[in-house]
């Protein structure tokens, strides 16, 4: 089985974006604020957007199951207050849940949280509980920077995040550390802000003792870990100066990386530096980079090709990256599959 642990609903029906635009307009002019009930998307519309897009590509490229969360750039936690984020997160999470119900063999949901800058992360717990208990979500996306590129929140090691971690440990679910749209002109959303955040989250964990407090907490750092694998020597050296344990012991029981790296040399580097047990297959298809690479004639985000062509990986390694590691990092996914005899 090939599990893609990083997919977003980037192809949701236009009505979703139109509703969101009205919600944003309603922040300034409450008379414009739409009701949740005014958003109407039928099952047929959901099926069409999935069948024509993600599911078609999954079949073409040969992946079986996608861990599916709301579109990351649309989370835009910096817009409005907690109530705005809360309503928006509930809508987006419900849509991913419905997709998972319509295509139970191909999509399993992961939740966005109703984060809001300056608001206590503990306020996200209710939505998190609903998504796990009622919608069968197997993970969450946690935004380390709800301000959208201004980094006004304390680091991930700060105690204000602990209520979320306590709930993650209780439910045995991992978090993908995933920022949203940058509203800081210095940082391009997918080219700079995402990769900055991946690197930043890793370093926040490195300088802290977070995983001493939460030995079973699991973070999935997407986009191949940002700059982390490339600069592994720097991080090892910094950990040494800070008198931290070796990174293998300090972080690699808790931090995992996905394979959303869009060229062969990058994937080779990732798998040379980071142990196989810490790498999970992912493509983030129909996401940040949607074009065809003229050097290969294939889509940049067709990442399975790079795993297949890797000169480093054995077939057992590939099994772990495609399936074994995902089952370990997402135990609720593993339980779902086992319940179906898979
Ligand atoms: Zn993503």
TrEMBL record:
Domain Amidohydrolase-related: residue ranges: 3-331
Gene Ontology, cellular component aspect: cytoplasm
Any one Gene Ontology BP term: secondary metabolic process
Highest taxon, organism lineage: Bacteria
Keywords: Lyase
Keyword flag Lyase: yes
Coiled coil: none
GO molecular function, one term: carboxy-lyase activity
InterPro entries: ACMSD, Amidohydro-rel, Metal_Hydrolase
Species in which this protein is naturally found: Ephemeroptericola cinctiostellae
Protein's recorded name: Amidohydrolase-related domain-containing protein
């Amino acid at each position: 089985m090939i599990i893609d642990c990083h997919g977003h609903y980037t192809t949701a029906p236009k009505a979703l974006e139109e509703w969101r635009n009205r919600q944003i307009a309603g922040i300034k002019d409450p008379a414009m604020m739409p009701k949740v009930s005014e958003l109407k998307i039928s099952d047929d519309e959901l099926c069409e957007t999935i069948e024509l897009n993600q599911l078609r590509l999954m079949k073409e490229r040969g992946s079986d199951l996608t861990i599916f969360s709301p579109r990351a750039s649309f989370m835009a936690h910096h817009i409005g207050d907690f109530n705005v984020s809360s309503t928006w997160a509930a809508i987006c999470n419900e849509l991913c849940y419905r997709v998972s119900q319509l295509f139970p063999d191909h999509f399993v949901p992961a939740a966005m949280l109703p984060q809001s800058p300056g608001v206590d992360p503990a306020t996200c717990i209710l939505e998190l509980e609903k998504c796990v208990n009622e919608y069968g979500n197997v993970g969450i996306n946690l935004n380390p920077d709800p301000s959208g590129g201004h980094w006004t929140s304390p680091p991930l090691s700060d105690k204000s995040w602990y209520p979320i971690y306590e709930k993650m440990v209780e439910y045995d679910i991992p978090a993908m550390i995933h920022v949203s749209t940058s509203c800081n002109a210095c940082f391009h959303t997918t080219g700079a802000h995402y990769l900055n955040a991946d690197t930043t989250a890793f370093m926040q964990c490195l300088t802290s003792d977070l995983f001493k407090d939460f030995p079973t907490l699991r973070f999935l750092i997407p986009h191949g870990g940002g700059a982390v694998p490339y600069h592994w020597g720097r991080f090892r050296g910094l950990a040494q100066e800070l008198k931290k344990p070796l990174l293998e012991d300090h972080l690699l029981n808790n931090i995992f990386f996905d394979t959303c790296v869009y060229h062969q040399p990058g994937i080779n580097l990732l798998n040379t530096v980071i142990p196989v047990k810490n790498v999970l297959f992912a493509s983030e298809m129909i996401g940040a980079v949607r074009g065809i690479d003229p050097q290969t004639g294939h889509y940049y985000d067709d990442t399975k090709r790079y795993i297949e062509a890797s000169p480093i990986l054995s077939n057992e390694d590939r099994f772990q990256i495609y399936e074994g590691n995902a089952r370990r990092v997402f135990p609720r996914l593993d339980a779902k599959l086992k319940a179906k005899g898979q």
